[in-house]
Amino acid sequence: MTSPNKRKEVDLMKLIRGTDGFNSMMSDYEVHMPGDCVTEFSVKFKGPKDSPYENGTWRVRVELPPAYPYKSPSIGFSNRIFHPNVDFSSGSVCLDVINQTWSPMFDLINIFESFLPQLLLYPNPTDPLNGEAAALLLKEPEKYKERVKEDHVSEGEGSDESELSAYSEGEDDEMDDFED
Q1: Contact assessment for residue 119 and residue 47, using Cβ atoms and an 8 Å cutoff
Q2: Quick check: 165 and 176 in contact, CB under 8 A?
Q3: What is annotated as the active site (predicted)?
Q4: How do strand 57-63 and strand 74-77 relate by DSSP bridges?
Q5: Who contacts 172 (Cβ-Cβ below 8 Å, separation ≥6)?
Q6: Where are the domains of the chain?
Q7: CATH says 3-178 is which class?
Q8: Which residues belong to the active site?
């Protein structure tokens, strides 16, 4: 087995097992792998405490490129999330540490224990993918929080998977296993 393939498996197993004692911001997550594929999988998690996202359940699709860990994974939200740094239509995430400053020193645990919780706790409205969310956060922070909570009640928690099909084509079957 080549080194990058071994690293993919090791990182995925660490993610599946959880944090192993880390002081976690978001260790309540589930990993779903369709079959034996270690390059494409989904992760369901609760939003971080003390954020407008804390009562929502979010799903992120992850794709590990052949050059992982030297090249960053591709991640995107499968269900809609109102956030300045997440494209509302596609779920794409604008996060410099994943998109531009990725290093082989990072792993999947970093994404789900550090990078995504930080993104949800501290949105960056000055570099938005969602201009509406950024403008609302800058001009009316309380209305922004209300909108986030409204959206995750209707989309993030217990939403019918068919509602998400236009957002995340082809993930309906694999997400059925995540329903609470």
Answers
A1: no
A2: no
A3: 94 (glycyl thioester intermediate)
A4: antiparallel
A5: 161, 162, 164, 165
A6: 3-178
A7: alpha beta
A8: 94
Q: Are 54 and 47 in contact (CB under 8 A)?
A: yes
Between CA 175 and CA 146 the distance in angstroms is 27
- Span 35-65, pLDDT tens digits: 878 899 999 999 999 999 998 999 999 999 9
CB 159 within 8 A of CB 79: yes
Do the beta carbons of residue 166 and residue 80 sit within 8 Å? no
Give every CB contact of residue 102 below 8 A, 6+ residues apart in sequence: 71, 72
Kindly state the tokens that stand for 126: 């000055």
CA–CA dist 155, 62 (Å, integer): 20
Residue 132 has pLDDT above 60, yes or no: yes
For position 1, what pLDDT does the model report?
Answer: 56
Taking alpha carbons only, the member of 117, 78, 75 closest to residue 98 is: 75
Q: Which two tokens stand for residue 13?
A: 């197993």
